[in-house]
Amino acid sequence: MDELTATHRAMGKGSVPAGEAYTIELRRRYEAQIDDVWDAITSPERLRRWLRPVTGDLRLGGKFELGGGEHGEILRCEPPRLLKVSWLYGPDADAWPGTSEVEVRLVPGPTGDTEVELIHAAVVGEPLFPTYGPGAGGVGWDLHLLALARLLAGGETADHEAVQKSPEGREFIRRSAAAWGEAHLAAGGEPEHVAAAVEATTKFYAPDPT
Predict the structure, then answer these.
(1) Ranges of the chain with pLDDT below 70
(2) What pLDDT, on a 0 to 100 scale, did the predictor assign at position 126?
(3) Is 168 exposed, middle or buried (0-12, 13-18, 19+ CB in 10 A)?
(4) Using an 8 Å Cβ cutoff, are 80 and 106 in contact?
(5) Strand partners, 156
(6) E-state strands within the chain
(7) pLDDT score, position 156
(8) Count: domains in the chain
(9) What are phi and psi of 101, to 5 degrees?
(10) Residue 210 resides in a domain
(11) 118: in domain
């Protein structure tokens, strides 16, 4: 649960090529050197251990695909401080280019640590938002940043399915969804919509056991 409080979450406004966007923003510090963190977010061998297996042309302008169906193009790559990609999901998403982007910024700290800021921008009108709010992507990123923390701390490879089925993982998801609800409220969300979105997000990521 300490991992939840290690992350600062916010919802904001931005833009993507397709137009006005909303953003989910996560920021946290890792006790690891910036080159180590950069390697963890760009090396295929390490990416698969906290995110998903990745294939493609992994260079500026190249296209990539993750094992879960997420795919896109590498838009900016400035080692070891900035990585920006387009971020689409599912085969139908290719009909709507420029609707979603993820940017990761790394800043070295004074004691050999590294601050990581992840900003996921999605076009306003994105179909999942009315139901799930910022937790649609926010809870998933929380789970992945938790896995990244474990990798950087000791080299542990994430088992996302096991985490989401465990009592501790389900509680992490519940609290993550609530935290994104608080970020949504702070950004001006209507309380009734926020409450419904938090409930829907929690049930999506941690459905009741059958």
Answers:
(1) 210
(2) 85
(3) exposed
(4) yes
(5) none
(6) 8-16, 19-30, 54-56, 63-66, 70-78, 82-86, 88-89, 100-108, 114-123
(7) 86
(8) 1
(9) -140, 150
(10) no
(11) yes
Q: How does DSSP assign 59-115, residue by residue? A: STT-EEEETTSEEEEEEEEETTTEEEEE-EESGGGGGSTTSEEEEEEEEE-TTS-EE
Q: Look up residue 130 and give its two tokens.
A: 């009315």
- Residue 98 located in a structural domain: yes
- The pLDDT value given to residue 182: 98
- Residue 22's nearest CA partner among 104, 145, 127 is 127
The parent domain of residue 75 ranges over 2-205
Which residues partner with 42 through β-bridges? none
Domain containing 24 — which CATH number?
A: 3.30.530.20
The pLDDT value recorded for residue 158 is 87
Q: Classify residue 123 by its DSSP letter.
A: E
Contact 139, 201 (CB under 8 A): yes
Q: For position 210, what pLDDT does the model report? A: 64
Instruction: Note whether residue 163 is domain-resident.
Output: yes
User: Is the entire prediction scored with pTM above 0.90?
Assistant: yes
